[in-house]
Design brief:
Radius of gyration: 15 Å
Strand content: over 45%
Order of helices and strands: EEEEEEEE
Helix content: under 10%
Strand order of the largest sheet: 1-2-5-8-7-6
Shape: elongated
Distance between the termini: 30 Å
Number of strands: 8
Length: 114
Amino acid sequence: MPPGDKPYRCTIYSIEIGPGPGGMPAETLKKIKDAWYGELNFEAGAFISGMQEHVEVNARIRLTQDRRISNHNIVTLADGHQYRVVRAYHGVDKKGQKVSDLSLQRLVQEYDIG
């Protein structure tokens, strides 16, 4: 977490496929964990992923390392909005602490968490 920044709580979810209305497959969220995070500075905009796809990044956060987190996860931040992980970096910060830095894209249509 950047020095001096206030920590916030987030919730990390995996996307599960299960039966939905009328027996049709539907995506639901399964909670993986709650975590403290700090916001990272970033320049708003898009980047090109490995598949040459332009991806908009709306937030970047840092939390204690959890290698279960990938670009297949959804994160709810303290602002109450849901975000898709578009990039997860698992490494070590300048102090030698294991961290996960997540680049997030805000969802236009959010999942019903219940």
